[in-house]
Amino acid sequence: LALPKGSEILLSAITIGDMVRIIEHHGLVAVPVDLDMTTLKLKSESLQHSVSPRSRALLVAHLFGSRLDMTPYAAFAHEHDLLLLEDCAQTFTGDDYRGYPESDVSLFSFGTIKTATAMGGALLRFKDKALAHKISTLQSAYPLQSRFSFGKKLLKNSLLQLLTAPLLFTAFVWLCKLAGTNHDKIISSSVRGFPGGELFTKIRQQPSYPLLTLLKRRISRYSQRHIEERIAIAKGVADSFPSLEQPGQHADHHSHWVMPILSVAPDELVQYLWRHGFDASRSASSLIAVPPCDGKGTSGEAASTMQHVLYLPMHPAMKSNEINRLATALADFNPSEKNGGGE
Fold first, then answer.
1. Cβ neighbour number for residue 157 with a 10 Å cutoff
2. 3-state helix/strand/coil string of the chain
3. CA–CA separation, 16 vs 290, rounded Å?
4. Given CA atoms 173, 287, 144, 97 in this order, what sign does their dihedral have?
5. Residue 193: per-residue pLDDT
6. Which of 14, 136, 213, 274 would you label with 333, given CA atoms 20 to 30 Å apart?
7. Which of 253, 261, 267, 249 is nearest to 326 (CA)?
8. Segment-wise mean pLDDT, segments of 10 residues, the chain, 343 residues
């Protein structure tokens, strides 16, 4: 787009940190728009407060598996002559949604922890064919991802998949304790799409043929049944523990890519759930609350929520007795007084 340096990109106040890095890398300014954390919608007053003559684009993220109605954001973008970008990385549910038709670009991700993962890769849908061609031309100049590096990634994540077996996972946690390390941090860093440094070198690659083949297979064969099972698990936990407070619990459409909950003592609750055999995490996602930049933008509610969020373990193989045991553990949790009271 070759936007002038200092141009402002309005974006959801919760996003992955690398989004902000990419914006700033190009000399642009990330301006957060605060969220109503019960619905995950962008606050209209924050949108109006954040827009300025330097605004050039609006980047809306569908969070935690929810899907927003993009109509009001399309109208806002049209009113202020903004490019409308739609981050659908966490909302993929099969072929039922390919992005909002009026979004200029809709971005879908198939990284390691995403729905229908292909261990990498993405799909972008463009409203403007000329822009799509321009992006394709730029990408064609990038080096090709090696089959060896993709194969190594497949092997590493296949080994991690073995840890879903309870006995192996228990042994892994025990070994980490003996070594004085945190198993949660090890796993979280291992499944990051671009761990370590050199982000821009790693993302500026063409996908290898095996990656494209796997991506095609995963998308073409993806079953809606997996989404339905995931939703049923999330509802089962919520129904078993009605007082559970969740970001997006009143979202209009939700597929529960992850299950975040809020606690006055999230770190203590994670440790408590570990002791009861549940692999809860505070780092299951790369999401951050974007701080205002030089007084531009707002992120108060989003920032407060991210200070108290943790993620519950949730997968279709969970049995009803496991769900009930998890709900009981949550109900019985009593944080220490130093953290300011109960749930």
1. 15
2. CCCCCCCEEEEECEEEHHHHHHHHHCCCEEEEECEECCCCEECHHHHHHHCCCCEEEEEEECCCCECCCCHHHHHHHHHCCCEEEEECCCCCCCCCCCCCCCCCEEEEECCCCCCCCCCCCEEEEECCHHHHHHHHHHHCCCCECCHHHHHHHHHHHHHHHHHHCHHHHHHHHHHHHHHCCCHHHHHHHHCCCCCCCCHHHHHCCECCHHHHHHHHHHHHCCCHHHHHHHHHHHHHHHHHCCCCCCCCCCCCCECCCCEEEECCCHHHHHHHHHHCCCCCECCCCCEEECCCECCECCCHHHHHHHHCEEEECCCCCCCHHHHHHHHHHHHHCCCCHHHCCCC
3. 9
4. positive
5. 60
6. 14
7. 261
8. 95 95 96 97 96 97 96 98 97 92 96 89 95 96 92 84 71 78 69 68 92 94 88 84 88 92 93 85 85 91 95 79 84 70 43
Enter the tokens of residue 59: 């980047």
Query: Could you tell me if 105 and 126 are in contact, meaning their C-beta atoms sit under 8 angstroms apart?
Result: yes
Q: Rounded to 5 degrees, what angle do the CA atoms 116, 122, 126 make?
A: 125
Check: CB of residue 213 under 8 Å from CB of residue 221: no
DSSP letter at 86?
Answer: E
Backbone angles phi, psi at 339, to 5 degrees: -95, 0
Place of tokens 């019960």: 38
Identity of residue 110: F
**CA dist., res. 119 & res. 104, Å (int):** 26
Tokens representing 113 are 């922890």
